[in-house]
Inverse folding.
């Protein structure tokens, strides 16, 4: 298996793949008589010319690290946002496109309160919560045409937690 270390999910590190959905920094504006901060327009949603936005609820079986995978997928006709319905972290696996197939993957570990929006056509792993319940609100394309491509790596990858302290010689 090929080793793959997790990295923290930050807007800068994830920008090529999509958007980090979180209430970071001061709110863009105050609403509801000043009692609610609005963090406005945080995702680049894209549903193509023949699709519309839909909200679904996913209930995914939790996994644990280390986590082995060989399957990634992408949605060529629309973006896909995952908004956790708990404060538990989840694993986000993405890969750059390399001439129509996925390149080497990256693994991000979310912090509590973070969700993601995957851009149209971004290769990504399956929904991978790290604790139960694995409930997510998902905003993605609803349409009459297929919107899924899958790819299996010839060699599986094993996602491991990144080292948190000094590395021994």
């Amino acid at each position: 298996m090929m080793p793959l270390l997790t990295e923290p999910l930050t807007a800068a590190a994830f920008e090529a793949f999509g958007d980090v959905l979180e209430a970071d920094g001061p709110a863009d504006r105050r609403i509801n008589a000043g009692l609610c901060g609005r963090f406005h327009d945080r995702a680049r949603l894209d549903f193509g010319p023949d699709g519309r936005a839909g909200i679904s609820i996913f209930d995914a079986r939790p996994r644990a690290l280390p986590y082995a995978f060989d399957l990634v997928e992408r949605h060529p006709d629309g973006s896909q946002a995952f908004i956790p319905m708990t404060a538990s972290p989840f694993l986000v696996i993405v890969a750059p496109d390399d001439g129509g197939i996925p390149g080497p993957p990256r693994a991000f570990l979310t912090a509590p309160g973070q969700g993601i929006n995957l851009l149209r056509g971004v290769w990504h792993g399956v929904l991978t919560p790290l604790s139960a319940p694995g409930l997510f609100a998902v905003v993605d394309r609803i349409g009459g045409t297929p919107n899924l491509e899958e790819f299996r790596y010839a060699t599986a990858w094993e996602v491991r937690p990144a080292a948190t302290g000094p590395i021994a010689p």
